[in-house]
Amino acid sequence: MTLNIRPERPGDEDIIHELTQTAFATMPYSSGTEGPIIRALRAAGDLTLSLVAEDGGALVGHVAFSPVTIGGIHGGWYGLGPISVQPERQRQGIGGALIGEGLERLKQRGAAGCALIGNPEVYRGSGFESDGLLAYGDLDRRYVQRIIFSGPAPKGVLQFSPAFEAL
Fold this sequence. Notes:
Elements: E1 3-7, H1 13-24, H2 34-44, E2 49-55, E3 58-67, E4 69-70, E5 77-85, H3 94-108, E6 113-117, H4 120-123, E7 134-135, E8 144-148, E9 156-159
Parallel strand pairs: 5-6, 7-9
Antiparallel strand pairs: 1-2, 2-3, 3-5, 4-9, 6-8
């Protein structure tokens, strides 16, 4: 595997959409809106960082990062997601590589940290954790995770871009 991680470029949009829809199609927790969310983030100017993983010239993975607020304040925080990997390529480290590269690029931009909603077992390896200080609706707080780059641990309600709610 010769994985190349690079920023999204013009012409990738439809491939990213199809990859995302395919990757989430069999996930029981999926609402089927993950691909449209990425399009809505892009259209709203909230797709802060969009990285793709290429292998042999084919896109095999994608991750999106967008601004979030915590307790109503942006404070340099970003949300991770959606993240997708072609089903036949899952569990090969592609998602972890995308996350690692994305987090490094956010740090270089001076981000305070990154938050997500997800399975702690999946994201712990990338440095995400829950201290119970972040809330998202009535979701069990252990699924509301964050990684701090600088500053204090955030506390409050996590709010993603309106693109996540519009669909």
